[in-house]
Amino acid sequence: MDVRRCSWNTEILSATFPLEISQEILKIHISPEVRAKKLLWSPSMSGIFSTRSFYLHSQILRFTPSPNPSPFNWNSVWNSFLHNRLKLFLWKLVNNIVPCKARLNLLFPVLDTSCLFCNFHSESVDHLFLHCPYVKQEMVVLVSRKCRDHWLALAQINQGERLKAKIWTPPPENWIKVSVDAAFSNGISFSALVFKDSNGSITFAAAYKHTCLDPIAAESLAILEACKELEKQDICLAIIESDCLNAITFINVSSQNGSWTAAPLIEKIRRYKHRWKEWNFKFVSRLANIAPHALAKWALFCNHDGIIPLHLIPTSVFCNIGYPLLVGP
């Protein structure tokens, strides 16, 4: 800046700053009056800082309309046939003012912000409605039940009779029900196990990889893995369910041994059955065995071998329209 002429030195500006910045600097007016330098608070008309002016300035973004307002027409929600409470909840959800723990923690200290359902992550709106495994499974089950009811209603209209869907049912109190299935491809099988208690809560899940050349042997391997895990956990009252009729028949009928590839496996399972008198081996339809079927497909795709932490179980496992409530990490 040339003080004597009260103007900017264009040569120094061009050498120091890019052209765009230099042009912006040249727009600044230089007053010929010489004044002492001092700090000014620009949000205040007087230039003097005050608590009131700071508060008002901090609220500008809150009360100033967005330059790019959302194109969503909220009138379509307010005028809909939804319950008024649901309308208000949707509005709060979109505007991120649902009083979850993470939100409340911004207003006053919250000692524990962990999710009430899974206890794994902070209870935020995104976690509750997008990532929480408990909420995800409940949503999937709700949609599955609605789809099933709709399908049954259509079947009743088309066939003139009410069809009964065969779905998974919980075991008696103090019993454990083990649903098993296998995914078989190119000589490799993945045996999936899903343990549930009388509340329908998943207590254990695993998928084990085997080399196998026969589908019945693959299903038998899954049942055998279930027996091993039941004995390992010392569970006396158990129901083992499979959608492989041949394997269950070979296990329960001693006069039949099945295919030669599955015969040694069937014999091992019978030994477990002899030692654990209360164990029951039952055949169920595929509709009642969706959970292990989905888990086996997932294990085959991910090449997973071993125990699966409950909070990492894929959402598709909860599509059996049963009672899929997790019980622990």
TrEMBL record:
Any Pfam family from its record, for instance, is zf-RVT
What InterPro entries has UniProt attached to this entry?
A: RNase_H-like, RNase_H-like_dom_plant, RNaseH-like_sf, RNaseH_domain, RNaseH_sf, RVT-Znf
- Record domain Reverse transcriptase zinc-binding: where: 49-137
Residues covered by the RNase H type-1 domain: 181-299
Q: Which domain of life is it from?
A: Eukaryota
PANTHER family reported in the protein's UniProt record: OS05G0353850 PROTEIN, RNASE H TYPE-1 DOMAIN-CONTAINING PROTEIN
List the protein's name: Reverse transcriptase zinc-binding domain
Query: What organism is this sequence from?
Result: Castilleja foliolosa
